[in-house]
Amino acid sequence: MTVELLSPAKDLNCGIEAVNHGADAVYIGAPRFGARAAAGNSLEDIQTLCAYAHQYDAKVYVALNTILKEEELKETESLIYELYKAEADALIIQDMGITRLAIPPIPLHASTQTDNRTVGKVKFLESAGFSQIVLARELSLNEIRKIAEETTVSLEVFVHGALCVSYSGQCYLSAALSGRSANRGACAQYCRLPYTMVDSEDKTIACEKHLLSLKDLNRSGQLEALLDAGVSSFKIEGRLKDVAYVKNITAYYRKQLDAILARRPEYKRASSGQSAFTFEPVPEKSFNRGFTSFFLNRRTADITSFDTPKSTGEWVGTVKEIKGNSFTLAGTTPLNNGDGLAFFNEKGELEGFRVNKVEDNRIFPLKMPSLIHKTAICRNYDQAFDTLLSKPSAERKILVEMEFLTNPFGFTLHITDETAAGIMITAPFQKELAKREQSENIKNQLSKLGNTLFKVQQIDVLMEENWFVPSSLIADMRRRAIERLMIVRKIRYLREIARKAGNVLPYPEQRLTYLGNVSNSRSEAFYKSYGVKETEPAFELSPRKDVPLMFTKHCLRYSMGWCPVYQKQPSPYKEPYYLLYKDTRLRLQFDCKACRMLVFS
What is the pTM of this model? Predict the structure, then answer.
């Protein structure tokens, strides 16, 4: 099975660095209609990224994954043709109306926004012609394995990054409260706000906590289990993250996957080239709210980030001694001038400060915070690490083997790269015996590949006599050979063609409510052609009252210890419970049969 590491790109620079740091594929926002409206990119930049990535056999997927209004369909159709001309490898889509447009044969990937969490849904999308399907983050390993056993389509799973608390594509909180739709790429992130939780009698259960905010995903320890469950694409979240994040996290997962591939020959990497880094990747040094593997193995209590939605970084020690305008830490992590440190103050709020000077383990802040003995200190900005990542921090090279031989009228150079792409060139030359050994000079000259994509793994000099070979001739043969190899690799790169829909299965449901996100006539026609008898318009077209605005497997009853299924402890409070933030009042409802929490306005 081919294994893909898929990295995010906010822009062209992030995309290039993702490739440099080992990504097998990159996903980037289209100029319009991406689920991160703030991360759109020009067609020119996408074309440049495609050309760069394809040199390493890496792919570029373009996110076009919002729902579309009727009047946007024509523009979308034209945009897809332009993306195809830019040599994008696939589109990540949510709106099924796209399948009914006159578009080129570009592969379609079903976004996580299409709510892919059942065998039936994935089997349907596979039969409808989708080439890759992004599974819901909430699925367990057993659920993923079950889907893989009953389908043949490529399965993509998030392994790192920010977590949406709601099932993707099924969150309408932002649209209802602010008019900014998550399904239109403009989520206002109400899930990251501080809420006070009260019961039906207005008794306070929790005060000003980020009760809908989750920790960040980190499944680096479960990659092999995911591989064996049938996952072929490992996705890093972060199309709004900066380039340092992309470098660090991509490099980290590249190293993790390479270690697995080295001892599991049945799995093969999806692209070519090996990346060498100037730094040791550490995920805790990039933005994170603490880490969780989410529901991959079982429901656990470690998924939430109630105290803050901000980055907590890495733990570095506890306050040992406070003296004037400085303090010492009990910890072994070395700190640097300019580091950003943080701690939770007496109010339970995350408070940050900058380091002005470090002397051994004594820290002098720019402004001394109100610390107390044994306060836990985190570092959420590592000055030295960030400086390292601000410079060129990776080099990706394709390994080649060379053979230098004689022929009746001169010399021959044969080059084969790690993908078995090969070329052979000859150079006429009047041979004469050399006074000095030529082999080492030939190898030395051939190995000078400079700023090319290639790195020599092995050179064999196969001459029956010690013929004299001028360095200028070797250099010219090397240059011509590399140019030709680049052309051969470009010719050999074949873009995948869209899968054709075969015998399309009936859609798993016969009636679609607002949860179907049907926002145009082409989308409606798609579903009705596959057995759906009735469709309601999308919430964004027809806002509703008294309907769930969020569906989440995160459950506050479980978080408080009152789950009737897992904990069997009665609650001292009277339902229904409410979340309050300024003028916003949200009602909670618990669906234990489906093991989920619903949020109403």
Answer: 0.96
